[in-house]
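Q&A log
Question type: sequence-to-structure
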Amino acid sequence: QPPLRRPPQQPPSCICPFPTNTTKQPPFPKKKAKKKVMSGQRSSSSGGAAASVAAGCTLRESASRSSLMRARAAAASSMSNSSSSSTTAAGAPSASFVAGSSSGFGGCRNISGVEDGGLAVFSWGRGEDGQLGIGDTSDQDEPTYVDALRGVGVRQIACGSGHTVVLTTDGEVYTWGRGDDGRLGHGDNGWKYVPRIAQSLAGQVIVQVTCGSYHTAAVASNGDLYTWGGGMYGKLGHGNESGHSTPRRVEGLVGLTVSQIACGSRHTAVITSTGALYTWGDKENGVAGHGDTEGHQYTPKLLERLAGKRVVQLSACGFHTGCLTDTSEVYTWGEGKFGRLGHGAERNCYSPRLVEVLLGKKPRQVACGGFHTAVITEEGKMYTFGGGEHGQLGHGDKVNKTKPTVVQALEGILVSQITCGWSHSVALTTKGRVYTWGNGDHGKLGHGSGKKVSTPQMVEKLADHKVVRVASYNEHTAALVEPFDESGNFAGAFGTNSVPVTTAYMQDMRDMVNDEEYSDVTFLVDDQPVYAHRAILARRCEHFAAMFRSGMRESLEREIRIPNVPRPVFLLLMEYLYTDSVKIDLEHSVDLYIASDLYQLDRLRDMCCMVVKRNINGDNAAVLLQSASDAHCQVLKDICMEYIVANFDVISKSEGIKSVSHALLLEILAMRP
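Response status: OK
Response body:
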């Protein structure tokens, strides 16, 4: 198992809601408590202007991006259609899963997704590198909602060694976690503790993402493959071992349409639209599968052994690979230690070899882990083989299995998807229940402790939710939950007999904002009326509750003047109070932060911080800094200052730097190392 390197420095102190000390940065506390506050990131890319992102809701697209969004919608529709046909070929039970089009349904770097709507993200396990996306470096021994992605419609998710990547319904990519080797794709090597959009992919409609130990890959809607991160062993496919901190197209596949991707620790594999399989990277122990073991394969190469087969599903992890053909044959190759290849021995296999025990079993998914492999059949049965030291095979013992062996503990339970980490396994049932077993270090099993479990146990924290997909890697696990409505609720949030708040209800509440018909209080903002309802405001905001019951003139007058708050910002604040969600433009983030602080709305204030952290870049950082400074907003000023100092060489050449005052420039220069 590849060693995990420690970050070069401690994460910065929490930014929201407390000001950041930019000269001395204490480490995050290591505790299980779920934090509301979100940390910043050490450095970021200087990509183009970001779309405005609501930490409490959805993306608000500008007119200049409308055509791109239409293209993304079309690509998503196309992806769904192709997924349905691939699903049939792979024998998946439900068209709602992106089955045949995913990178191997799972294994260490399985992606997750559905055809319709956005999903909520839960993560748990090791958080030392920020890979859980909850804003700090604490471990979580139970599934924890990634609030930083509230309102971002997530479609797919993949876990890497210390990082995580998601794909949105709009075809955009967010990454977070450890950033060494440039694996996050932000143009730097900095750690990110909350999800951050990959600006370097702006303009591309991405339809698929996946991770390896130290690299990441994405497929565009036209079938082009992009890779980035560590280039050791040639696993990026660019003809050398150079790493890249931003996505770069794999030229060796231009002209082919990539339909699936899978990444191991030292290699990468893809399936094309014709069912052909290409691999590249390390050749040692037969990892690349081309029959030789010397040197590295630096560019994509057709796997001749399977040239006469149509491959429909693929998985890779660590140092071995598995695939499924349209005739329900499973092939494995690479390192054979512990029996992970399923051939009845521990010998390495230098090219794809048929797993004979699975003939006639009608397999429909193979998932590779670090030291073991799992297969599920059309009947929902699960077979595991390989290393069992931590109980990850699920047979109630810690014995290795060199041949596929059915998991008896799951008899009678229909498994729809599996994913394997280095020493644990995760199964998703057709009823949306999640079972985990194996090594429980860092809480990655989600059972509330770090204990090892040698037979599948249900993750109780997710029992009332409809889980759609699962993903895992070395020390952390993730799940996607549906549905995720605009109110921030997901199915089962209030128990299995509850009905989630509907979109229509949310729209009705939103329509009540500034609606004169039934209002009983009027605010004068910029000398224009804003109509509201005392009962709603008093219940949602203690500031207004105190105002209405104080006995002062504000509690008696029908018209109340609101000074020093721009009307558009006050309307956003009202929308948040009425709906518990709001779309925040970057241009309003500073003023809305000031207003939310004034009205003691801590969560809305944190949302404003999140919007700035998600969208700050080389083009807007200087303007944001000056705006925060003019508003005497120290928290947002510190976020901008930290970003500018880390990316000074780029920002000092931007047009925005001209808007920064002389005094602020001196502050920036004084903080530079």
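Response note: The longest strand covers residues 296-302.
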